[in-house]
Write a structure and sequence with these properties.
By secondary structure, the chain is an all-alpha fold. It is about 70% helix and about 0% strand. A two-stranded antiparallel ribbon has the order 1-2.
């Protein structure tokens, strides 16, 4: 379908919007449900539509350009940095070939398309698309789905669902790569300054998946915005689900990295033992030469490399002690949480009176 091409991302977004949004707008204008009071929720007052197709859909298409370069860099580093020992490189490369075949499989994409375009609305129409409580641009309880509603459930919504499922498939494949990598005999360096034995680049790559959390959060936030604006739901009622979504987003993105926790624990333990044994010899020689029974006058210590070497060794030992067993960091958690929380800013704004917002801003300024 050309969704993997990193060029012409804007063109693909425009085409996708023309397929999903433009027909809906034209049909609603024709039916008189694009704006006005013919229905309780006209198209242009439906926040979920903005969230789905003007935020989530572009993000899902743009994510290809943002995430892929990091994954390619990870593969390049693993292939050439020595983290994977020579004897395991062949197995790792075979895993990459297998994953590439699954990623590019036409059968897999066809299956995802069939699932995405399955007429779920036949099952959930009573609860999602039409309602006895209110009328909307996509249909009413008595009249059923409108023409625009049919386009939405047959084309627009399935297309967005397909993009979501496609990214879920790609993410599962990436998690499979991480799992296979964690099973190899990795050459981790306990004194590496990233405090992750040299695997810090994986953490940096993993946090890029936060853009997917922003896309999914947009769909959820759009629904919440509708409930607050049109149906009188209070902000406090959606605060709990929002927090849960943010927490789940952080966990789903970062938990795959815990596959390396055992390797990191072993590297830290062995590093502490080896450097601890060597530290006794280094510190002992320094103590013997300069402190206990100085072979040279103390004033000769000035300008020598001995104190500096001892401090450097102590610093290396401190790095091993600070090595993290769980490959997460406060910065990464906040980075992903910010992505996941960003779409809900409009919900907070809609649920808070303007005068209260202004009062809060003034109070914090003065």
């Amino acid at each position: 379908m050309g969704l993997s091409e990193r060029r012409r991302t804007i063109n693909r977004i425009v085409v996708a919007l023309a397929l999903t949004c433009l027909p809906l707008l034209l049909m609603c204008v024709e039916d008189g449900t694009a704006w006005g009071k013919n229905v309780k929720v006209p198209l242009l007052h439906d926040y979920s539509m903005y969230a789905r197709f003007l935020v989530a859909l572009p993000l899902l298409l743009a994510a290809e350009v943002l995430i892929d370069p990091f994954i390619r860099r990870v593969v390049s580093i693993l292939d050439s940095s020595g983290i994977i020992r020579e004897g395991d490189l062949a197995a790792f490369r075979e895993t990459l070939k297998k994953v590439a075949r699954l990623r590019d499989s036409g059968w897999a994409e066809l299956f995802l398309g069939l699932v995405a375009f399955f007429p779920f609305f036949l099952v959930v129409a009573k609860f999602e698309w039409v309602s006895t409580r209110f009328s909307t641009w996509h249909g009413t309880a008595t009249g059923g789905l409108s023409v625009a509603g049919w386009w939405f459930v047959l084309v627009s919504s399935p297309f967005l669902r397909f993009l979501m499922l496609r990214w879920l498939w790609r993410y599962l494949l990436w998690c499979y790569v991480l799992r296979r990598l964690s099973k190899l005999n990795l050459a981790l360096l306990p004194t590496h300054p990233d405090r992750l034995g040299g695997l810090g680049f994986l953490l940096l790559t993993q946090q890029q998946f936060g853009i997917l959390a922003a896309a999914l959060g947009s769909v959820l936030a759009g629904q919440f915005a509708n409930e607050i604006t049109h149906f009188g739901v209070h902000l406090s009622q959606v605060r709990g689900p929002t927090v849960v979504f943010i927490a789940i987003s952080v966990l789903v993105i970062l938990l795959p990295l815990t596959l390396f926790s055992l390797k990191l624990f072993e590297a830290r333990r062995d590093g502490l033992i080896r450097y601890g044994v060597a530290a006794r010899g280094v510190a002992g020689k320094f103590d013997t030469k300069w402190i206990a029974t100085p072979a040279s006058p103390p004033d000769e210590m000035v300008g020598t490399q001995d104190p500096s070497s001892l401090i450097d060794y102590i610093s290396s030992y401190d790095v091993i002690q600070q090595m993290r067993i769980i490959p997460m960091s406060k910065r990464t958690v906040l980075y992903i949480a910010a992505y996941a929380a960003a779409p809900f800013a409009i919900v907070w704004w809609l649920g808070t009176p303007v005068d209260q917002l202004i009062a809060e801003i003034i109070k914090r300024l003065f």
